[in-house]
Write a sequence for this structure.
């Protein structure tokens, strides 16, 4: 759709008006454009989505070829992220050793967590915290590569 100055000003005014709407008016505006509830219960999220919709209706949306490219890229990115997420699952009986401040610390992987100094912990982070007195990512502290 071809834009003109008068139309552009109308669009801008509609978008600016969204910022000063109360919650009820904003919800009514949402319902006017969408047949589903907002994905996130955030005022700014709703304003952004409604503003985009106003512009999309006035100037046209994303063409189908671009939408397809976006979907393909999102799928590739999602697959990459799934491959990256590996859960640390050491075998029971594995000993994890860490040198820290000239002292050697040993942790044993047991059935329900990690044994250290006679106690069983659910995570390596809890043990790292006990050793250092500060919060740590347990995998990083113990140098475990996942």
């Amino acid at each position: 759709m071809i834009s003109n100055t008068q139309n552009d000003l109308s669009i801008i005014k509609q978008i600016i008006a969204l910022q000063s709407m109360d919650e009820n008016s904003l919800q009514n505006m949402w319902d006017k454009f969408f047949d589903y509830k907002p994905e996130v219960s955030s005022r700014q999220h709703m304003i952004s989505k409604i503003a985009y919709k106003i512009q999309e209706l006035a100037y046209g949306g994303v063409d189908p070829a671009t939408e397809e490219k976006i979907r393909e890229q999102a799928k590739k990115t999602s697959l990459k992220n799934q491959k990256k997420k590996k859960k640390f699952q050491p075998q029971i009986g594995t000993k994890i050793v860490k040198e820290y401040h000239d002292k050697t610390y040993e942790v044993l992987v047991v059935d329900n967590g990690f044994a250290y100094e006679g106690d069983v912990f659910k995570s390596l982070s809890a043990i790292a915290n006990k050793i250092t007195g500060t919060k740590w990512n347990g995998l990083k502290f113990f140098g475990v590569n996942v």
About this structure: The two ends are 52 Å apart (CA to CA).
